[in-house]
Design a protein that fits this description.
Blueprint: E1 5-9, H1 13-25, E2 30-35, E3 46-49, H2 51-60, H3 62-70, E4 73-74, E5 77-81, E6 84-88, E7 94-97, H4 98-112, E8 115-118, E9 131-134, H5 141-145, H6 147-150, E10 152-156, E11 160-166, E12 173-180, E13 183-193, E14 196-203, H7 205-210, H8 213-219, H9 227-236, H10 238-241, E15 246-247, E16 257-261, E17 265-266, E18 269-271, H11 286-303, H12 307-337, H13 347-355, H14 363-369, H15 371-382, H16 395-400, E19 404-406, E20 409-411, H17 418-421, E21 426-430, H18 438-445, E22 452-456, H19 461-478, E23 481-487, H20 491-499, E24 505-509
Parallel strand pairs: 1-2, 1-9, 2-8, 5-12, 9-18, 21-22, 22-23, 23-24
Antiparallel strand pairs: 3-7, 4-7, 5-6, 10-16, 11-14, 11-15, 12-13, 13-14, 17-18, 19-20
Helix pairs in contact: 1-4, 1-11, 2-3, 2-11, 11-12, 13-15, 14-15
Length: 510
C-alpha cells in the first residue's frame, strides 16, 4: 500500500513513535507531526518502562530504544508500612523524565525524516492526508469531534489522585501509606533521574473532603497547582521525602478516567494511545500502551493492501490485548482504592496480595521470583516458621493444605467440604456484577446474617476473579467465613486469593 502523506495529531510519546515507525516503513511518504504545545514545555514528571515494554520497543526499533535507555534511570521496588519495608530486586525497571523522553523521541523522529510542527492545533477534518493518526491524548479533540463514529464510553474511578514530583532521587520505587488526622494517603513514588522522583499520591473521597481538598481543588485555577495540597502532603510524607519539597506541574486532584471506544478508526483516521483507551496507572503507563499501539499500527499498515484493511487489522490485533489490560487495571485500581483496609497485614503478606491483586501474577510465580519476600509473607499467613514454607513449585498446594479456625468452625485445609454448602448458617450468594459496582455494594448491604457465605457464579476466569474480589469485600464487611467456587483449572489463582485473605476457603468445580 502506498501512502503519500501521513499526519499525526499530538506530539506525545505515542505520536512521535508512530511517526518514526511509519516514516521508516514508508520512506517516500511525507510524515508530519502537529503538536499544539512547544518543545520545552510538557506536563508530567517521570514515565516508567517495564521490562516487557522494553523488549517490545527493542524488537520494533532498537536504535530509538537504546537512546531511551541511555537517558533513563534504573531502580528497584519496595513497599513500606510504618517501620517495616520489603524490597524487590528488579534490574530491568526503568523510568525517564517525560520531557527527556519527548526530547529523545523528537530527535529520532526527525532523524527518520519526520517534520515536527509545534504550536499548531489541527483537526482531522482540517487535514488533507492519506492517513491521520490521532494521538491527541486523554482529552482527544478528535475523539470528541467524531464521537458518533468512535462511540466513546468514559467512566470515573472512586478514588482521587494527584501527580507531583520532588527534586531528589529516591533510592528505589516505593509504595507507602501515611495516616493523618483526616485519613490515609498512599504514595506511589519512583526515581526517574539522578536528582528527580515522581510522586503519585491517592486517597479516598471522604479523606479528601475532610482535608479540605474539595475546596482547594475547586479554587485552584486551571493550569496552576494546588499548593495547599502540596504543602499538606509534603509534611505528611516528610520521612519518605527526606526533608525535600514536593513540586507541582499543573497538579490538581483528579479521578482516573477509563476510556473505551466502540471503534478506533473511521475512514482515514485512527485513534492511538489515550485517545482510544486508558488503563489505570498502577499497572503501567499510558506511554507504554501508546507506543505499543504505534508498533501494531505500523505492522498492520505494512501488511495490508489498502487503508481500510490496515486499520481494521490494527484494531483487531490490538484491541484484545488492550481490553485484557484494562480488565487487569480495573482490578488493580479497586485494590488500591481499598488499600488502607489491608494495613493490618504483615508487609510481606501485603506484598503478596499486591502482586496477585489482578490475577496477572500467580503466587507460585511470585514465590519463585522473590522468595525473600514471598516466604516470610506465606509464613505470616500460615502462622509458621519461614523454613516451613516449601519450594515455589509446591507453594500453591501448601497454601491450600493450611488449616483454618474461624469462630466455631475448624477446617483441616482451605478446600471447603461440601457439607458446609448446605449447612445451617451458610448463605449462598451469586456474584453476577463486577465487585466494585454499586450493584455489588447494594448486595453486600442487604446480605442476611450468616456464619458463612458461599459465593457462586460463572466459571470463566474473569467471573472467578470478580468472585474472589467480591469475597474480600464481603469478608471485611461482615467478618463471616467466605467460601468461593473456583474452577479446578485456576488452582494457583485460588491459592493466591487465600494467602491474600480475599477468601477463607475455596471449592473447586468442574
Amino acid at each position: 500500500m502506498k501512502l503519500d502523506t501521513i499526519a499525526v495529531l499530538g506530539g506525545g510519546p505515542g505520536g512521535l513513535y508512530a511517526a518514526r515507525l511509519l516514516k521508516r516503513s514508508h520512506p517516500e511518504a511525507e510524515v508530519t507531526v502537529y503538536e499544539q504545545g512547544v518543545p520545552d514545555k510538557t506536563f508530567g514528571f517521570g514515565v516508567g518502562l517495564a521490562s516487557r515494554t522494553q523488549r517490545n520497543l527493542r524488537l520494533a526499533d532498537e536504535e530509538s530504544l537504546d537512546g531511551i535507555v541511555a537517558a533513563a534511570h534504573g531502580h528497584e521496588m519496595s513497599m513500606r508500612v510504618g517501620d517495616n519495608e520489603v524490597r524487590l530486586a528488579h534490574g530491568e525497571l526503568l523510568a525517564i523524565g517525560r520531557a527527556t523522553l519527548l526530547s529523545v523521541l523528537q530527535k529520532y523522529a526527525e532523524d527518520a525524516g519526520v517534520e515536527l510542527r509545534f504550536g499548531e492545533r489541527r483537526s482531522a477534518s482540517g487535514i488533507d492526508a492519506d492517513l491521520v493518526v490521532a494521538a491527541d491524548g486523554i482529552s482527544s479533540a478528535t475523539r470528541t469531534d467524531l464521537a458518533e463514529e468512535f462511540g466513546p464510553e468514559i467512566t470515573e474511578g472512586e478514588g482521587l489522585y494527584l501527580w507531583c514530583g520532588t527534586d531528589f532521587a529516591l533510592p528505589r520505587a516505593i509504595f507507602t501509606p501515611v495516616a493523618t488526622e483526616h485519613g490515609t494517603f498512599v504514595a506511589h513514588a519512583y526515581p526517574y533521574a539522578p536528582d528527580r522522583s515522581t510522586f503519585l499520591i491517592e486517597t479516598d473521597e471522604k479523606t479528601w473532603r475532610r482535608a479540605g481538598f474539595d475546596v482547594s481543588t475547586r479554587e485552584t485555577p486551571n493550569g496552576e497547582s494546588d499548593q495547599l495540597s502540596l504543602s499538606y502532603l509534603q509534611e505528611a510524607f516528610s520521612e519518605t521525602l527526606q526533608g525535600n519539597r514536593l513540586i507541582g506541574n499543573r497538579t490538581k486532584w483528579l479521578r482516573f478516567r477509563t476510556i473505551r471506544c466502540r471503534s478506533w478508526h473511521t475512514r482515514n483516521t485512527v485513534l492511538l494511545g489515550d485517545a482510544a483507551h486508558t488503563a489505570h496507572y498502577s499497572i503501567g503507563s499510558g506511554t507504554k500502551l501508546a507506543m505499543e499501539d504505534a508498533i501494531a499500527l505500523d505492522r498492520a499498515v505494512l501488511a495490508s493492501g489498502d487503508l481500510g484493511e490496515a486499520l481494521a487489522k490494527y484494531e483487531a490485533e490490538r484491541r484484545p490485548a488492550v481490553e485484557h489490560l484494562q480488565a487487569i487495571a480495573e482490578r488493580s485500581m479497586a485494590w488500591w482504592d481499598s488499600f488502607p483496609d489491608r494495613l493490618a497485614m504483615p508487609v510481606e503478606q501485603l506484598m503478596i496480595a499486591y502482586m496477585t491483586r489482578a490475577g496477572k501474577v500467580t503466587v507460585d510465580r511470585f514465590a519463585e521470583s522473590a522468595p525473600q519476600v514471598a516466604r516470610p509473607g506465606l509464613a505470616a499467613f500460615a502462622g509458621v516458621a519461614i523454613d516451613e514454607v516449601p519450594s515455589p513449585a509446591s507453594v500453591a498446594e501448601w497454601i491450600l493444605d493450611q488449616p483454618l479456625a474461624c469462630g466455631a468452625h475448624r477446617f483441616p485445609r482451605r478446600i471447603a467440604p461440601e457439607t458446609l454448602r448446605n449447612a445451617g448458617g451458610t448463605v449462598p450468594v451469586e456474584i453476577s456484577a463486577r465487585p466494585w459496582t454499586p450493584e455489588t455494594a447494594d448486595l453486600i448491604a442487604v446480605l442476611p446474617h450468616a456464619t458463612a457465605y458461599w459465593l457462586t457464579g460463572p466459571d470463566d476466569r474473569e467471573a472467578t476473579l470478580d468472585r474472589l474480589d467480591a469475597g474480600e469485600r464481603i469478608r471485611r464487611a461482615t467478618g463471616a467465613l467466605v467460601v468461593a467456587d473456583v474452577p479446578a483449572g485456576l488452582r494457583t489463582v485460588a491459592a493466591g486469593a487465600v494467602a491474600s485473605e480475599r477468601v477463607d476457603l475455596v471449592a473447586f468445580t468442574g
